[in-house]
């Protein structure tokens, strides 16, 4: 009896003490079980450079080799604890991926984190014991890991998924996703601690007074105002002018002269044509503006060091905003999306040029773009730059107002506008009137875009039909829904014929009127569903592009309608765009243009294509994000740029490509949605990334002066 009682006390003590000292994986204790699947453990410990004992575990080639650490009896209670910490060291000369899963009482109680474990000395892996992500700190990408925390290397899992009842924890599992060869890792002590010290410190003080990341160095990083002025004021290379007309058109390709930018096909190749009648391949940059360095400070002041006071000379660079209502899929669940912000980029321009910084910046920026071989100001650029008439420019028709909408389920930037609502036509007319004001007679204007990245489709397998399904899912008062129902009535006559064709129960037409009507997904057994949805998608797109096209040309009969900047699209939307637009525009995030849109289909439609967004990002110049299309480092960015624009110019249907964007996004995220990537031509300090822009310049000049086939 006495021995049984002592054993019970010992086990209770082990379970209770596990809240602060779960197990040392270098020397496992009897109170825990070490289950290993396709993992081998070294027979003895090894001593690291810091004198700490640790043990080698080797993950064998398998689908998911793993170590499961569980209590011998019962479960652990981690109530009041905030972080799991594990001493770990990559034993390989390359980085490996480590997956940490923490299992609770049932399948619903579970935390999951994936971390990249770099080669090098030992560090402490920290997993917060609750769901978190960089969005919880106001940005889309978190700071690089590991980081030096007062002499300690901390590797914090900044993204953790799931929920966990800390009163019942049954296992900690360490695994690797399908290693192709044996991978070894050293493990040591694993414990849990109260608070979230490491998570907080991962984000603390990451931005200096210039808006630069504090924990890294790179060639363009500056330390003081004097260095900033010298670097930012360096003269760009001279702009190329030989063999070009005043707008940048090729003198060796003479086409029709109209006095306005237009399109023309010569032989097998489409061209934009300058007002003077010369071929023009548009190489542009988006968001050439001085307000891109704004980032929210309120609610996360601990991230910033050296911010100037909100007053005196710095008052113009402080402001307030609110992006809570504007967010849809982009930046949803983000903290710190309203309140006081600071504009790092504009403040740095003031440091460089003083009171006249705006005018000086405009002159310097235009000189840079021309010197780097660009010939177009892309979307969202400072309107004053276009008025200066040194580069052709574009304008955006943003249709906003009170009118109906349709949800596709993707809705990244908001729901689809309902073009059947009469109020949409009114809003389109008002937007076109605003966009054309003062520029309709300007020959330097290339043309107009309409909206941006509308949710024509959703990403899932049946996403092509999302707009049709969403239309029928809406309320009866939806003008789009009523138009769709009218089309179905016209085709089928009676509800039973539609029901038979779609394989559904439909006792009366009124059943379609119901809010949240569950429209069927297309399938092989009922091909009429896909046919009817396709017809509706074309009707919807026709209505949208027809209304917008009429509005633009009503207020400006001279300039081009450059399309809707497709991200998600359907064949039906692209066909409608080709009918009503002068140019079809696509935002293409891929290695080459042909991997981002259906080039063969566009060729059949017989309309030119403009690539209106592309970029390549890396994380070695400050901002944490690597953009939509990431490459390994800064040198690779330049190579990727050259490959992309060369491929664009080689396609006879493509008439230009526009880079996104001019300035790096703020380290802590832009106001709109927290994007914080290194994708700029210049940094937040307005210093060009010299190696990158030189590669860009050479690629641009090669495209602009390339020999014709």
TrEMBL record:
Keywords: Signal
Signal peptide region: 1-19
Domain of life: Bacteria
UniProt-listed InterPro entries: GH (IPR017853)
Gene3D superfamilies membership: Galactose-binding lectin, Glycosidases
UniProt-recorded name of the protein: Beta-agarase
Species assigned in the record: Dyella agri
